[in-house]
Amino acid sequence: MPIDPAWMTETAEQRELRAVTRDFFAAHGNDDGLWKRMAGELGVQGLAIPEKHGGAGYSFPELAVVLEEAGRALCAGALLPTVVLAANTLRLCGDEQYLPGIADGTLSATVAFDGDVRERDGTLSGSADFVLGGADADLILVRAGDRLFACEPDAATRTPLRVLDETRPQARLEFRDTPATLLGSADVVPRVLDIGRAALAAEQLGGIGHALEATVSYVEQRRQFGRPIGSFQAVKHRLAALLVEYEAARSATAYAIACVATESPELPVAAAAAAIVGTGAYRLAVAEYVQLHGGTGFTWEHPAHRYVRRARADEVLFGTPQNHSARLAVALGL
């Protein structure tokens, strides 16, 4: 089923949302109370949640705008596990109990799909590593066998992990006869992960945009041999190549986001393509961010290293580029 190009064109309302969100994250991105403030002032958590569950009832492209700006500012790390992964898992399972709490910002959540967890008589036993936001989430959705369960986090042992990207905390979860509530079949997991890949591509797009803009600004100001270094042809070529990759990532991401919004069967292909293109573009962006800033780019005081960490961590978050290429080949029958 072809996608209407209108789904891939930014509307005036989305541009306004982008401007407001960018200003908000610039002013409050490092605040301790960011999550509550986002809910109270912008209603971010409920943007793409249906109105019947207390949300605003907008579509995934509006949420993607916020995710892109969060990726640009490297903040609001709980959005991906809560509003994207957990909320869509609950929605696809037909849950009506937890979505209102996510929509109003009073509940944060995460998912543990890849652990070694078993269910017996309504309790869970086992463990799951590298769970996004697992140390602080108010609700954990766990895959055990071919079913999904919801459990209260206080009943599990949670150990924060030391990870490369500290802006996206992760934890190890251990379950020992932990009471859990059945949500439904784990058949929804592949689709949730594809939605997560589209969301991650939007975040990556924000990081690429920041790196490109910051680098262009720097090379326009930094002078060598009596002229801005941005006037040298070698620097121009490198930034032009990055811009090409950025636009390619933007196109692939827009298509994946449109596939999520329209519930297109093409989502697995679109999500894999966006993951491959976005990861490559982000890797190039952070490399140029560091290199073209010269010695400054290698210092801890400069923010470039934070984007390097995010780009590297994102490469393996929902599978490596090689994994995505293999999935894409299978989906296309190659």
Automatic annotation (TrEMBL):
<dbReference type="InterPro" id="IPR009075">
    <property type="entry name" value="AcylCo_DH/oxidase_C"/>
</dbReference>
<dbReference type="InterPro" id="IPR009100">
    <property type="entry name" value="AcylCoA_DH/oxidase_NM_dom_sf"/>
</dbReference>
<dbReference type="InterPro" id="IPR036250">
    <property type="entry name" value="AcylCo_DH-like_C"/>
</dbReference>
<dbReference type="InterPro" id="IPR013786">
    <property type="entry name" value="AcylCoA_DH/ox_N"/>
</dbReference>
<feature type="domain" description="Acyl-CoA dehydrogenase/oxidase N-terminal">
    <location>
        <begin position="14"/>
        <end position="105"/>
    </location>
</feature>
<dbReference type="InterPro" id="IPR037069">
    <property type="entry name" value="AcylCoA_DH/ox_N_sf"/>
</dbReference>
<feature type="domain" description="Acyl-CoA dehydrogenase/oxidase C-terminal">
    <location>
        <begin position="189"/>
        <end position="328"/>
    </location>
</feature>
<dbReference type="Pfam" id="PF00441">
    <property type="entry name" value="Acyl-CoA_dh_1"/>
</dbReference>
<dbReference type="GO" id="GO:0050660">
    <property type="term" value="F:flavin adenine dinucleotide binding"/>
</dbReference>
<dbReference type="GO" id="GO:0003995">
    <property type="term" value="F:acyl-CoA dehydrogenase activity"/>
</dbReference>
<keyword id="KW-0274">FAD</keyword>
<keyword id="KW-0285">Flavoprotein</keyword>
<dbReference type="Pfam" id="PF02771">
    <property type="entry name" value="Acyl-CoA_dh_N"/>
</dbReference>
<protein>
    <submittedName>
        <fullName>Acyl-CoA dehydrogenase</fullName>
    </submittedName>
</protein>
<comment type="similarity">
    <text>Belongs to the acyl-CoA dehydrogenase family.</text>
</comment>
<keyword id="KW-0560">Oxidoreductase</keyword>
